[in-house]
Amino acid sequence: MMKGCQNECPAGGCTGGATKQASESFKAADLIINPATTFKEKPDPSGLVFGTVFTDNMLTVEWSLTSGWEKPYIRPLENLSLHPASSSLHYAVEPRGETEENLVPMVWLNEYTLFEGMKAYRGVDGKIRLFRPTLNMDRMVRSAARATLPCFDKEELLECIRKLVEVEKEWVPHSTSASLYIRPTLIGTEPSLGVKKPTKALLYVILSPVGPYFASGSFNPISLWADPKYVRAWKGGTGDCKLGGNYGSSIYAQREAMELGCQQVLWLYGEDHQITEVGTMNLFLYWENEDGEEELATPPLDGIILPGVTRQSILELARKWGEFKVSERYITMSDLTAALEENRVKEMFGAGTACVVCPISKILYKGKNLHIPTMENGPQLATRFLNQLTDIQYGREDSEWTLLVS
Ligand SMILES: Cc1ncc(COP(=O)(O)O)c(C=O)c1O
């Protein structure tokens, strides 16, 4: 078993061990495809609310400690039937709705639930592409290890996902400002109240067409609330994995941000109020640093930052361009306020699969509104990243970062 895998994974390791893992994972070659025979109407992507419409089919694979992985299935999307003691339904955070009047259905999220978020894009040439999907598979396997859920062969899951998207290809929007969101999920399903490693699990993948993140077609900058009273992640915790509990517990702070007139939370950490992430995005600061150097900075992967696919892509592009310093470094609120007073900040933006990049124009901190001059500065750099990444995703530029679905 590889170091770091605490779930006695029969697959022999979660971080890429090819041999034993491959033989004990489910296999895409065993996929049983019994697709839906009735079809839902496909919506106009411009009017979609994120994550509310789902395609006709889903992928499911069951696992148990005694039998290992069963064969994967592509089958009509349907409700899950779970024992009420299922481990993924307990030891919980109860997220609440945005307002008391608008409570979301009560859901329980905990460390027996993990997920990924990736997209399929229909290119200008009509071909469907995934963007760096192996990075999502790597992250999902790391999350599985952290959640004591079973490991699997990343390539086999990716091939199953590719097949699912192929079956559902008509659901990939015919638009270069929309896409098909892919949500791989892994949950513990053991019918037991014991707080222990589950002996049963279910991996499933559902698909949801999503419209343009920026409805106007151009950047809409966001305002942030920065207050150390809520913490998204901590050293030794699970913030660097995509576990359900990280997200459920953040909704309360998000609601307070909105009550204060801000759109997202700027997550701070530690006595010195380090800037970590924004909402569910990684954060970038483009500025003239303390030494007078032009720098693109983002916090380092020290255990409390989710290693975003977009973050990694932005860092790699910027390093390839070689036009300014690119750093993974700590940035505190006092670094930022000093730079704002000295007019050294050029742009601040969030980065993630949902929007690629999202400009930041205001931060409410210690009762004061800090104006961030991102929009006044173009935003030149954020726009360049947006164009470069979407050119790759929609096939306007050839890249090794894409995987063809069909
Ligand atoms: C906490 C957090 N940070 C950053 C990201 C961005 O990651 P990615 O670029 O892989 O979408 C996400 C998105 O899933 C996230 O949930």
Automatic annotation (TrEMBL):
InterPro entries in alphabetical order: Aminotrans_IV, Aminotrans_IV_CS, Aminotransferase-like, B_amino_transII, BCAT-like_C, BCAT-like_N, BCAT_family
Subcellular location: Cytoplasm
Main location: cytoplasm
Recorded GO CC terms: mitochondrion
UniProt protein name: Branched-chain-amino-acid aminotransferase
EC number: 2.6.1.42
Reaction it catalyzes: L-valine + 2-oxoglutarate = 3-methyl-2-oxobutanoate + L-glutamate; L-isoleucine + 2-oxoglutarate = (S)-3-methyl-2-oxopentanoate + L-glutamate; L-leucine + 2-oxoglutarate = 4-methyl-2-oxopentanoate + L-glutamate
PROSITE patterns: AA_TRANSFER_CLASS_4
SUPFAM superfamilies named in the record: D-aminoacid aminotransferase-like PLP-dependent enzymes
Keywords: Amino-acid biosynthesis, Aminotransferase, Branched-chain amino acid biosynthesis, Cytoplasm, Lipid metabolism, Pyridoxal phosphate, Transferase
Species for this entry: Chrysemys picta bellii (Western painted turtle)
Subunit (UniProt): Homodimer.
Superkingdom in the source lineage: Eukaryota
Cofactor: pyridoxal 5'-phosphate
Function noted in UniProt: Catalyzes the first reaction in the catabolism of the essential branched chain amino acids leucine, isoleucine, and valine.
GO molecular function ontology, one term from the record: branched-chain-amino-acid transaminase activity
Membership in a protein family: Belongs to the class-IV pyridoxal-phosphate-dependent aminotransferase family.
GO biological process, one term: L-valine biosynthetic process
